[in-house]
């Protein structure tokens, strides 16, 4: 069985479909409304599974006894999980004889939770990776089967880093399934040291705090790109901010904005930063200088 929902789970499902293992069905979250028209849409994992003719299971409450019984009918030896998006309780975890094996995008026990890639960039980590582990009721605390490591570039966004981890992690997940089937892998308990958490990011947490040093703002913006998007308010408008440059020789008060012919500078707690791309509310992503030329600036306007 494969359980997953968003696009970063696709490389793992594709890898398992091409492997020696048989994927008997796919478990994913129910259709959700998306886009401006708010039309109901299947998850990326559901679409790929249907393209391969696989049964697609979309329970609203996967821990209900009725679904637990339905899942048992597939007689899966193991359930591979990548970003499924729902809490799994003991009765469901007990169905496959080899349990549920999760691919998590951090080096556990660091960054347990829903946003490990964003947390690692925001914290300034230089190395991260992916981990396969046996799911138990506590959050991301189960014993570990294997890891792969990945260097974080100084310019990485969360989207770029997650894209690489999704691919390298897919290979790790396949080798973990191989090792479980062969009896060659034994899960090792996680260390009690170095535990950190990365809960789901709220909209307010994505807001840019201009009083922070420029390097911290740079990491924050890259961590929030593309989702949920770092943002600030300028006047009465909310503006999303894409990855920025640091103007090391320029200093402005935090949040102060200077519009020049070819760039837009914003003050921080240290050096000013130069905006590259912005997305005003209700509009598309655009060049910051082009955007600034179309705005009527109040002399007192600041980013907040």
From TrEMBL:
One of its GO terms (cellular component) is cytosol. SUPFAM superfamilies: FMT C-terminal domain-like (SSF50486), Formyltransferase (SSF53328). Keywords: Protein biosynthesis, Transferase. Its EC number is 2.1.2.9. InterPro entries: Fmt (IPR005794), Formyl_trans_C (IPR005793), Formyl_transf_N (IPR002376), Formyl_transf_N_sf (IPR036477), Formyl_transferase-like_C_sf (IPR011034), Met-tRNA-FMT_C (IPR044135), Met-tRNA-FMT_N (IPR041711). Residues 200-295 form the Formyl transferase C-terminal domain. It holds the Pfam family Formyl_trans_N. Residues 15-167 form the Formyl transferase N-terminal domain. It is an enzyme of class 2 (transferase). Coiled coil: none annotated. This is Methionyl-tRNA formyltransferase. The gene is fmt.
């Amino acid at each position: 069985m494969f359980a997953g929902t968003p696009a970063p789970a696709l490389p793992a499902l594709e890898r398992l479909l091409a492997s020696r293992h048989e994927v008997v069905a796919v478990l994913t979250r129910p259709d959700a409304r998306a886009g401006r028209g708010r039309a109901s849409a299947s998850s990326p994992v559901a679409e790929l599974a249907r393209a391969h003719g696989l049964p697609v299971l979309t329970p609203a409450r996967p821990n209900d006894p009725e679904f637990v019984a339905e899942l048992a009918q597939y007689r899966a030896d193991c359930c591979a999980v990548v970003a499924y998006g729902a809490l799994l309780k003991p009765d469901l975890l007990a169905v496959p004889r080899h349990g549920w094996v999760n691919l998590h995008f951090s080096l556990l026990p660091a960054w347990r939770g829903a946003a490990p890639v964003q947390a690692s960039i925001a914290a300034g980590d230089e190395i991260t990776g992916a981990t396969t582990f046996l799911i138990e009721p506590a959050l991301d605390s189960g014993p570990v089967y294997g890891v792969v490591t990945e260097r974080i570039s100084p310019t990485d966004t969360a989207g770029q880093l997650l894209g690489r981890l999704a691919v390298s992690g897919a290979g790790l997940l396949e080798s973990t399934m191989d090792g479980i089937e062969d009896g060659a892998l034994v899960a090792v308990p996680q260390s009690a040291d170095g535990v950190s958490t990365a809960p789901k990011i709220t909209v307010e947490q994505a807001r840019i705090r201009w009083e922070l040093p420029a390097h911290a703002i740079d990491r924050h913006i890259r961590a929030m790109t593309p989702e949920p998007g770092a943002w600030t308010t300028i006047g009465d408008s909310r503006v999303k901010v894409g990855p920025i440059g640091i103007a090391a020789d320029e200093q402005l008060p935090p949040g102060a904005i200077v519009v020049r012919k070819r760039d837009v500078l914003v003050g921080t707690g240290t050096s000013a930063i130069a905006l590259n791309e912005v997305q005003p509310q209700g509009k598309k992503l655009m060049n910051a200088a082009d955007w600034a030329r179309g705005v009527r600036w109040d002399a007192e306007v600041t980013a907040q």
